[in-house]
Amino acid sequence: MTQNSRIDETIHAFACMYEKRLGTVQVQKKNLGADDRCQYEIVSPLLRGKGNYPCVLSQGKITEHVMVLTHGLSDSPYYMSAIGRHFFETGINVVFPLLYGHGMNNPHQEMQSWDLCEKWQWDIDESIEIASMLGNRISLGGLSTGGALSLNGVLRHPSKITGGLFLFAAALDIGFLYENIGRLPLIQTYYRLTQEKVVGSGPNPYKYPVFSNYSGLQLARLIQENKHLLKSNRISQPVFAAHSVQDSGTLVSGVIELLDQYVDNGVAYLISKKIDNEFLAHADLVLEHPIELTDEGNHEVSAPKANPLFKNMMDAAIHFFQTEC
Hints:
Layout: H1 3-22, E1 26-31, E2 38-43, E3 55-58, E4 63-70, H2 78-88, E5 93-96, H3 108-111, H4 116-132, E6 135-143, H5 145-156, E7 165-168, H6 176-181, H7 185-194, H8 213-230, E8 239-244, H9 252-262, E9 266-271, E10 274-275, E11 278-279, H10 310-324
Parallel strand pairs: 4-5, 4-6, 6-7, 7-8, 8-9
Antiparallel strand pairs: 1-2, 2-3, 3-5, 10-11
């Protein structure tokens, strides 16, 4: 099988992964230069639009390293796109999965799924299989919930992840109370039944305007599973973790504990930086450029700002990747 045939087969498998969920999908290909580098997006009318599509950045060949980068809760692959482009420029293939219930025009039913956490884990597992068709050594990385899922993927499939783990504002600690109330089925049922309707339309084209508390409890379940798995495992893969020390949603203590107690080779890139007299917001950590809001929907949301230390952060991440993975 030629390199081009193998890439075509992989993109077809990636599209089929979402066809099961979204119905009819199309592969949208964009050339990224005079060589064979391409961007492949899996397009569906059920999704909000560009930036919300599952995506692969391909060098046009099988590469030694391949990376899976997963977005956070209520947002989309766009949030990992700048980080992914920087890794892509090192010569590797990059896969951007779309988590179940995300990026949709009408997401409420999907975001209320009883097995939402398991569906996200399935997305990671399938993405790892896609990555194995694109490169020899797989790395995982992600923002917030995507970071927690990446850690979970490493813990469940340690032999498959022979590259590194790259965490960006990873949801490893969201507070004792919130993590533990999610373990009670009655509480989960209450939040599921009383949840404000989760809508796709909103001023941020890449993130839902309403946060689903029920899906937050699914994240709490995932965090508890990670802590249970860590009791009997150490992480041999190199770990790079970037975090704002003032992040009030995903506490930096989770990153410090992970690196201190369970990682053999890790680096923390910690930020304490004010932007317009405010500390760096949780998801803004991964933004190279600010996101321009639209007048879509009737919700008011804060305008996402760029991380002023994005280049320094990525220089550190790329250096770690090239020297340790």
